[in-house]
Amino acid sequence: MPDLLLELFSEEIPARMQAKAAEDLRRMVTDKLVAEGLVYEGAKAFSTPRRLALTVHGIPARQPDLKTERRGPKVGAPDAAVQGFLKATGLKSLDEAKIQRDPKGDFYIGLIEKPGRDAIDVLAEILPVIIRTFPWPKSMRWGARSGKPGSLNWVRPLHAITATFGLETEEPDVVKFEVDGIETGQTTYGHRFMAPDAISVRRFEDYEAKLLDAKVVLDPERRKDAILTDAKQLAFAQGFELVEDQNLLDEVAGLVEWPVVLMGSFEQEFLATPAEVIRATIRNNQKCFVVRDPKTGKLANKFILVANIEATDGGATIIAGNERVIRARLSDAKFFYETDLKTKLEERLPKFEQIVFHERIGTQAARVASNTASAGYLSAFVKADEQQSQRAARLSKADLLTEVVGEFPEVQGLMGRHYAERQGEDDAVASAIEDHYRPQGPKDSVPTNPVSIAVALADKLNMLVSFWIIGETPTGSKDPYALRRAALGVIRIILDSGARLPLRAVIPELIERIVKIEAVLSPAGNAIDVSATLGGQLLYSTHIGVNKRPEGDQELASMLREAKADFLPNFRASFSTRIANGLLDFFADRLKVQLREQGARHDLVDAVFTIGEQDDLWMIVRRIDALAGFLNSDDGKNLLAGYKRASNILGIEEKKDGRKYEEKPDPDLFLEPEERALAAAIEQATSRSTTAVRSENFNAAMGEISELRPVVDAFFEKVRVNDDDPKVRENRLKLLNEIRSATRAVADFSKIQD
């Protein structure tokens, strides 16, 4: 079957856009082909700084013929309905229609035949639409046609479109169309400087080979491999080791079509600047890699650059140009660093009074103050030194005001640690300043030092609490303040460290350290302002919801006049409970996401979370693990089946009777030995499993519940629940409810999916 070759040749495509653009091109073309009935065998897209290319293999030469039946009006329907049916189906008369018998009557059926078109004609129709509607994040118009309606918007000026279609064994045809005055053909161009002449291509195989001869490596993965291999070899030959950087490698591969790896150097004196600053300077400004001494692990005064040309002087001029720029940038960085060292972190903090963190939350100074108080409070839960935790939290954001972090935001925290060490702070404090941002993603490490854990938890939990107070919670895909990431960070820290945080109690305590709630009766005496001062920002809140200022609430005004002493504590408790409940639901959702990614069943999270007031995430996960193991056993599967059977019977009968059977059964009404055995087993299993849960021995608790399995099976085999005697029936339904209640000692089995 024929193959398609498509290339869109333009000016420089930004490196950050190339990978997505290639994938968008592949997706858009193949989706359209499938929608047109042209099912292909395979497709692959490529990108370079000057072109997007796509090859699609095994496209049918022609669309299949389509035959569809369309149901028309009833036999004997009005003429207007008949004429509409004939027009819609293309039939000349009702003689060409079939009649289909139906319980509602006889109906006309029209057979519509749509002959397939040649695939090349379909391509000529869909490709220009795709090009015109291509989803570039940013695009432009150019040239004389740019002022005309409907002119093409493209990422950079588009110069040529190559589009061929045909069998591998034959000369392909050009897919003929034009976009904005650019007509398709078989011509592309090689490297801008080393082989700029036009190249005539036929199909993908000779297209890729001819580009390679013209100094263009089409496949970005091949360019990455070449850069990485050559850079490692060049560093090794000089006695160094490449500091690998995948993000930089991806970017550099999008900047060159013919990668040439070279090495430059800079003055030894710059190595007195922290390695992270040197690396950030060289990486951000010149897109170059750094190298290190493999024996010491310290950076060397060398760097590796990737050129886009084989220079006649061996790259000497290119190296010299990069060295000149890097020398100037490193000089600036060294000056910034030395300037920063003249001012201690503590001395920078007053500036935070003038910096607003969020207009409805307050200043950075207020944020630092609440983080400091919260870190001290949380230190007891993670066995950290309270004073060190508070000190680290107080200094944790100070490096945001330094020159180096202002120039290179990605080294925040890291530079704070450097400055803290230089000014003589305790090692635990310095480490916590760097680590409190972690983890910043699923692959980032988690703090392990107790002080770092206390500060990281304070920072993330305070962030979540603050935004929940003002009602700025994530909605759909929108999460501008990265609150989902903060919640996942809290979860990972707790699970990795084994920290025991009773969140239902902790969250109100954090609120007290963030929010000052006051209630004031209006001068007229008929309205109330309940204000929450969050970092100096006045918020209005009432029992009807956060951030709603009451114009006049007679009930609240009356409450304040009659019981002013009791009102504020009650309001504060209600306020804190609402925030805590909302955040716990959010943590439950995030925990489900994490456990699902790890292969766990999210329904088990629901089954455990809904038991009582579960808020200790570490304990919850242990409980979920024990429940998963139990349900994988035969006892667990059979007990779940028995539970479901009991629950289904109860559900039906309770709905029929309009009541719940939640009272204890009467032992005097047990008629069968299986009833007495089940009641005794439930009492024993409930007592023992509850004891095991209290001691957090969840495997033992599951084992005790599993003892119910044989007596539950025996009960259903020998006992008829819906006995003719109403009292016996009622008592047996109460006994079924005891099965449901007993399992709640370990989980809510109603949440578990079969």
TrEMBL record:
Please give the organism.
Answer: Bradyrhizobium symbiodeficiens
Q: What is its EC number?
A: 6.1.1.14
Quote the catalytic activity from the record.
tRNA(Gly) + glycine + ATP = glycyl-tRNA(Gly) + AMP + diphosphate
Q: How does it assemble?
A: Tetramer of two alpha and two beta subunits.
Query: Which GO molecular function, any one, fits this protein according to its record?
Result: ATP binding
Keywords from the UniProt entry = Aminoacyl-tRNA synthetase, ATP-binding, Cytoplasm, Ligase, Nucleotide-binding, Protein biosynthesis
What's the superkingdom here? Bacteria
- Please give the name of this protein: Glycine--tRNA ligase beta subunit
